[in-house]
UniProtKB/TrEMBL annotation:
Keywords: DNA-binding. Residues 64-102 form the Sin domain. The keyword Flavoprotein does not apply. It comes from Bacillus lumedeiriae. PANTHER family: HTH-TYPE TRANSCRIPTIONAL REGULATOR, HTH-TYPE TRANSCRIPTIONAL REGULATOR SINR. It comes from the Bacteria. Residues 7-62 form the HTH cro/C1-type domain. This is Helix-turn-helix domain-containing protein. SUPFAM superfamilies: lambda repressor-like DNA-binding domains, SinR repressor dimerisation domain-like. InterPro entries: Cro/C1-type_HTH, Lambda_DNA-bd_dom_sf, SinR/SinI_dimer_dom, SinR/SinI_dimer_dom_sf, TransReg_Diox_bact_type.
Length: 110
């Protein structure tokens, strides 16, 4: 489930309209809508902080995929992910880095 889908689900559970959530969080309704519709895929940590406060959850609950094994993510990984987000690294850039690392590893064993 994407960040936008989780925001929409939590907003609906709280019985909030887009307008109500936008007003309470102090963010643009159109921006929330674009996140929910997955047009905006990399919302800022500031936006997530504002939205999570209104929805009564922590930011981690918005950004982390549910772990099917029920294991908690290592705190160090969370810090690294947060640092990457705050430094402006996009998800796409991070995915490209991981793909490069996989490629490099597969080619180094030859």
């Amino acid at each position: 489930m994407s960040i936008g889908e989780r925001i929409r689900e939590l907003r609906m559970k709280k019985g909030l309209s887009l307008t109500e959530l936008a007003n309470r969080a102090g963010v643009a309704k159109s921006y929330i809508s674009s996140v929910e519709r997955q047009i905006q895929l990399n919302p800022s940590i500031q936006f997530l902080n504002k939205i999570s406060a209104v929805l009564g959850v922590n930011v981690q609950q918005l950004i982390l995929e549910d772990d099917p094994q029920g294991e908690e993510m290592d705190i160090e990984w969370l810090k690294l992910a947060r640092e990457a987000m705050e430094s402006g690294v996009s998800k796409e850039q991070f995915k490209q880095f991981l793909e490069f690392q996989k490629w490099q590893k597969s080619n180094s064993s030859d």
